[in-house]
Amino acid sequence: MIASIQGLGWVTAAGHGQGHDSRSVQLTAGELPRLRGAQVFPEGHPRFGRLDTFSRIGVGAIAFAMADAGLANWQEKRRTGIVAATEHGCLQTDADYYDTVIPNDGECASPNLFAYTLPNCFLGEAALQFGLAGPTYVLNHRPEDELAGLRAAIQELHWEGLDGILAGVVNADGPCLDPQPRRLPPGAIFLYLSPADREGAYGTLSLAADGTCRHNGQIVRRWQTLLDTALAMRHANQDNDR
């Protein structure tokens, strides 16, 4: 199975952005930026300010990836899906919500926090914003299997005959009930993938029957490796065109 990478967007502790205007992105530990709606949607977004952190970075990274692929604007719904992987989902939001439930027998439970106590809530926000009508879901990935969501997205792209799919990983700071350390630091990364009949600005991904993922023929197992090679290819091509 083959897919072309058309767009790249991210929100990490090192900053936020999209592939065409940055030569590097680092998945690094630290405090995530608190995105404002105007930084993500210049035309405005009525609900962005109410999103929890997990949803905010997820929607933000998707928006940057769609803009980078030249697909931010739309007239008709598109057969485009979203697959997001996460280690702990919106666990911090769940904890924050129950902090409002416990006092006074739940009389002060926050309806705003409750709206984001499922890790797939932000997918609906993104689908509404960009007219996406393909399959959307969040999956938990094992710490040692960073690219589980990417593999699932490539499969969905081909099995469902989609126009495109957003593949990413989303993790926010929060309580960790697993004694094992987290493999990925907090942040969100999304790629926009299209079928292989389009040339990819960031190269081509292939998925073998045994689950091995390759970028331009080279095996990749980590997001940072994929980001480095994809950005290097895009900007090398841009430099050659000047």
Describe the structure.
The protein has helices at residues 37-40, 53-68, 91-101, 111-114, 121-130, 148-159, 223-241; strands at 2-12, 15-18, 80-86, 136-140, 164-171, 187-195, 204-207, 213-215, 218-219. By secondary structure, it is an alpha+beta fold. The protein has one domain (2-21, 42-241): Thiolase/Chalcone synthase (Peroxisomal Thiolase, Chain A, domain 1, 3-Layer(aba) Sandwich). Strands 1, 2, 3, 4, 5, 6, 7, 8 and 9 form a nine-stranded mixed sheet that branches. A hairpin with a 2-residue loop joins strand 1 and strand 2 (15-18). The longest helix is centred in the last third of the chain and has 19 residues, at 223-241. The two termini are 33 Å apart. The mean pLDDT is 86.
